[in-house]
């Protein structure tokens, strides 16, 4: 059961972390619209391949951090601030106007390489997974044994692939409805991050 939960955590958080318009999923849209599903899949695989070491590095870093109680308490306080900021950020993003999807040339033969390159450049990924692992550990929902970590990493990679696949598969629909979808999704994420911030405060002080 613990292995399933770790896979689920990796999958759902990587999925939710990439659900709002970003460099990675907007590129998935462009590739799908311009080059087709085959290149979309190659791109998504490229991004997901990089997600594997990114998730592992995050777990490795967090494991060293959580062994120090003082650092844990500090991180929990920082996490509260981060989640409050994210809640405000998503709320603010929900108020913005419709996002325009600009198309640009993405060569078919470079789709996989483009996925790897853009994923490596995505500097938010490692701190994001560090925050997730630290939060799960604070609630005693994460185990650092090798098999559990592998399931978490696998879930993270598959979750990353799946959200990019969905973006590409729904490219035409998203292109027309991006503004409304972005607003709705960001409102939901604003509520979720605010809720996590409240839970973190309760866990820290009570």
Automatic annotation (TrEMBL):
List where the protein spans the membrane.
6-28, 74-91, 112-134, 146-167, 187-205
Q: Where in the cell is it found?
A: Cell membrane
One Gene Ontology term from the biological process aspect of the record: amino acid transport
Bilayer topology term: Multi-pass membrane protein
What are the protein's UniProt keywords? Cell membrane, Membrane, Transmembrane, Transmembrane helix
Q: Does the keyword Cell cycle apply?
A: no
Superkingdom per UniProt: Bacteria
Q: What is this protein called?
A: Glutamate dehydrogenase
């Amino acid at each position: 059961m613990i292995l399933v939960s770790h896979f689920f955590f990796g999958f759902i958080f990587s999925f939710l972390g990439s659900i709002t318009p970003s460099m990675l999923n907007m590129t998935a849209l462009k590739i799908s619209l311009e080059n087709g599903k085959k290149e979309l899949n190659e791109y998504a695989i490229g991004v997901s391949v990089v997600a594997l070491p990114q998730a592992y590095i995050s777990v490795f870093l967090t494991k060293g951090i959580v062994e120090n109680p003082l650092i844990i308490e500090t991180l929990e306080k920082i996490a509260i601030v981060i989640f409050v900021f994210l809640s405000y950020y998503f709320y603010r993003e929900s108020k913005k106007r419709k996002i325009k999807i600009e198309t640009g040339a993405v060569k078919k033969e470079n789709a996989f390489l483009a996925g790897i390159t853009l994923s490596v450049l995505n500097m938010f990924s490692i701190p994001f997974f560090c925050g997730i692992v630290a939060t799960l550990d604070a609630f005693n929902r994460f185990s650092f044994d090798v098999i559990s970590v592998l399931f978490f990493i696998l879930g993270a990679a598959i979750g990353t692939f799946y959200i990019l696949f969905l973006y590409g598969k729904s490219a035409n629909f998203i292109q027309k409805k991006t503004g409304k979808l972005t607003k709705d999704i960001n409102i939901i994420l604003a509520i979720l991050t605010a809720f996590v911030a409240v839970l973190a405060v309760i866990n820290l002080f009570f």
